[in-house]
Each structure stands twice: as C-alpha cells, then as structure tokens.
Write a structure and sequence with these properties.
Elements lengths: L4 E3 L10 E2 L4 H8 L7 E5 L5 E10 L2 E11 L7 E5 L4 H13 L4 E6 L10 H15 L6 E2 L3 E2 H7 L5 E5 L7 H4 L7 E5 L7 H8 L4 E5 L7 H16 L7
Parallel strand pairs: 1-3, 6-7, 6-11, 7-8, 7-9, 10-11, 10-12
Antiparallel strand pairs: 2-5, 3-4, 4-5
Helix pairs in contact: 2-3, 2-7
Pfam families: Methyltrans_RNA, PUA_4
EC number: 2.1.1.193
Catalytic activity: uridine(1498) in 16S rRNA + S-adenosyl-L-methionine = N(3)-methyluridine(1498) in 16S rRNA + S-adenosyl-L-homocysteine + H(+)
Length: 242
C-alpha cells in the first residue's frame, strides 16, 4: 500500500511532533484510510524528507512524528517562469506541470493583451503543493503576486531571461543555453502576443533575449512547459545523474 507524502510547515527533527496542515488529517483518515501508527513521508523545503508515523488523528487534525531522515535537503536550480495569467484551468495546469518540472518560482505578469487580470494565489499554491507531494520534489515553488510586466522588468535582478518568441528569426532556446547555468528564466506572453511597445521595452533590457520555441505556434501553456523542459534538460537538474 502506498505511503502518503505530505508537505508540512514545521521543522522536522526526530521525535518532535509536527502538526498536520488543514485538510491533511481528513485526507489521511478519510481518503487514505490511515490511522495512528501508520507511516507517512514528510518534507518542508528545508530539512529533507523524513519517514514519520501518525501519532494522533481525529477528524481534520493529526499529529505526525518524524522518525528517520530519508533524504537530505537538495538545492533546486533557480529556474523561473514568467507568464501572462491564463484562464483558470490552463493556469492551474501550468502551475502543476511547472512544479513537476522543478521550477523554482512562478511570476504572473499582466500584459496589455492578457485575458486574465488576476490570479487566485491560494488556489495556485495548493495546486503547487499537491504536485510537489506527488512528484517527490523536496520543496515548493514560490508563486509571486501578479505584477504589471513593466514593473516586473524594473524589479528584475538581472538574471538572464529568455523571451519565448512565436515567430521571427530568433535563435532557438536550445542554441542559447550551452555554457549557461541557473539562475535562468523564461517569459511566455498571452495568447494574443505582446504589443509592440511591450516588445520594445523588453528589447531595451540587457538581460532579455528572444528565443524560438520551435517552428510551430504553441498555446501559451504549451510554450511554458516546453520552455521549462528545455531549460531543465540543457542547463538544469536534468543534467545531474539521479
């Protein structure tokens, strides 16, 4: 029988009780049919992964007791995704898949042609947490508040940022990555594309480079996932033996 894997916020140390997060007690008891003494695996983004047991469980409350560290904490490559917010289902799908691909942070940026002007930060954080629990990563990606594109560029720290280019003569993303290492970011625009003033503003930033994502027109969610996969494969932790 599978062992549940949960993200918790408390520090993890042998024998020190950890409170389950809201909803996790119900999940363990009612969904997974677990009880006191059953095993769970825990992580918090700081202390690695631990084997623990359920010390107490009642309704939606549970206490978990770490017993043995299974994996030490490992650094996540600083690979960032900036994208114009998408409609709910597509945005949730991108957050889920970006988490599975090991993205370090997700930055929603508001653009002129974007069809969505806000995000449900709490919902997206839950999606990221559940995806991290399933894919066995040891941390959660940071999800930034939605921010105007120009404000995001003004506040950017100079990390190389690849602008996913839908058409034109931009070099391929793969061709721009040899010799590079994180931190790296990729920027994906709205379905309608960036306006000329937005493209001009990005073109004036020394850290922005246009990068082609293949010969076909991609939906925004496809472009985001494809771009992240290329970054991980050629410059991220896919290059490190597991």
């Amino acid at each position: 029988m599978s062992i549940p894997r949960l993200y918790v916020e408390a520090d993890l140390a042998e024998g020190v009780d950890v409170p389950a997060l809201p909803g996790q007690g119900h999940y363990l008891g009612q969904v997974m049919r677990k009880g006191e003494g059953d095993s769970v695996h825990l992580f918090n983004g700081r202390d690695g992964e631990w084997r623990a047991r359920i010390g107490a469980i009642r309704k939606d409350r549970a206490t978990l007791v770490p017993e043995e560290q299974l994996r030490p904490q490992a650094a996540t490559p600083d690979i960032r995704l900036l994208l114009a917010p998408l409609k709910r289902d597509a945005m949730e799908w991108v957050v889920e898949k970006a988490t599975e691909l090991g993205v370090a942070s997700i930055h929603p940026v508001l653009t002129t042609r974007g069809v969505v002007g806000r995000i449900n930060h709490e919902r997206l954080s839950t999606i990221a947490r559940e995806a991290a629990e399933q894919c066995e990563r040891l941390d959660l990606p940071a999800i930034a508040p939605a921010q105007d594109l120009h404000a995001a560029l003004d506040a950017w720290d100079g990390t190389p940022l690849f602008l996913g280019h839908e058409r034109g003569k931009a070099p391929s993303l793969a061709s721009l990555l040899p010799g590079r290492a994180p931190p790296l970011g990729i920027l994906v625009g709205p379905e309608g594309g960036f306006t000329k003033p937005e493209l001009d503003a990005m073109g004036r930033r020394h850290f922005v480079s246009s990068a082609a994502l293949g010969p076909r027109i991609l939906r925004a969610e496809t472009a985001a996932v494809a771009g992240l996969a290329v970054l991980q494969a050629l410059a991220g932790d896919w290059t490190v033996p597991s």
